Amino acid sequence: LDSLARLELSAAATPVAVGAPDNGPAAFQVTPGAVTFATGVDRRWSLKVDGQTIEPRPAFGTTTGYDIATGGRARLAYHTSVSRAAALIGQLVLWLLLLLGVSRFDTSTLARRRRRTLDTEPHAPLMSIDSPMTVAEPAVMLSMGDDAIAWQSTDTPDAPDAPDVPDAPDVSRPADPEPHEAGVE
Predict the structure, then answer these.
(1) Cα 83 to Cα 71: distance, rounded to the nearest angstrom
(2) Minimal CA–CA distance to 30: which of 43, 17, 41, 20?
(3) Is 145 helix (H, G, I), strand (E, B) or coil?
(4) Which own/partner pairs from 60-63 qualify as long-range (CB within 8 Å, at least 24 positions apart)?
(5) Most buried one in 5, 41, 70, 92, CB count within 10 A?
(6) Distance of CA 118 to CAs 84, 105, 109, 111, Å?
(7) How far apart are CA 59 and CA 47, in angstroms?
(8) pLDDT digit string, tens, across residues 37-75
């Protein structure tokens, strides 16, 4: 390795695949000779020249070399095995299960929260500001300094629970009361 490090190859070697993408196949022109690739011999690397696959060999003891018999258009690519993708997906699933296991996530909590939300949803509005305010059936209205006045609905002519108030005029609820704003009478 020491003598290899001192070896001057710049006059004898021509760089190939200059400007090739970092994560994809490299395409370049080759001439007859040897192409050396600076990684260890790995069968997942493939070099094809004009559609013919070239077998790799060890070069300089630690790198990969390809012997090119005829020049042409070359394509260098790396093929990742399917088991690698499966291993990465399996690892992701394990990490997600681990995170789920250490979290406070509980499916019964979701069910209770959903049930609680469904139980509290109103089916009708509790109060509408636009609707006129109405007085409950037979009632007595008092105002400052006035006598009690019997207030009866127009639906029932004489409510049995209406109190008898002497000297009180018979006043019926207006047929179409004016709308009031909330809290104002």
Answers:
(1) 35
(2) 17
(3) coil
(4) 60/4, 60/36, 61/1, 61/4, 62/1, 63/36, 63/37, 63/38, 63/39
(5) 41
(6) 46, 21, 14, 11
(7) 15
(8) 888 888 888 999 998 999 998 888 888 999 999 889 999
pTM for the whole structure:
0.44
Number of other residues whose CB lies within 10 A of the CB of residue 166: 6
Residues 6+ apart with CB under 8 A from 16: 26, 28, 29, 30, 35, 74
Cα–Cα distances in Å, from 71 out to 17, 30, 48, 138?
15, 5, 11, 108
Residue with token string 């639906």: 155
Q: List 171's β-bridge partners, or say none.
A: 151
Beta partners for 67?
Answer: 34
Distance, C-alpha 129 to centroid of its chain: 39
173's tokens? 């609820």
Q: Is the separation of the CB atoms in 17 and 76 below 8 Å?
A: yes
